[in-house]
Amino acid sequence: MIMVGDTLSTVKVSKLDLNLSGEQILIEGQSDNGNVKVVVDGNKTVRQILISPQLFNQGDKQSIENLVMEAINLAINSVDELNNEQKED
Prior knowledge:
Blueprint: E1 2-5, E2 10-14, E3 26-30, E4 36-41, E5 46-51, H1 53-58, H2 61-88
Antiparallel strand pairs: 1-2, 2-3, 3-4, 4-5
């Protein structure tokens, strides 16, 4: 498992072999507070969205939407970075 991080969020890249197809590569984008996680595959297809029940109790729709968008964008950007790294190798 490769960890890629920035100041706002964390991305986990699970990959066993550089020759795997896009569907077999799963990348997780996580909001900075960890309350929203999004898993995309190597083809940038969203496979799973996990939202902490705690967010629903707070009732702030806009915050939830922003956290989901952040996690999705981070995961998709990580797919692009991973694809670029593969092309360089």
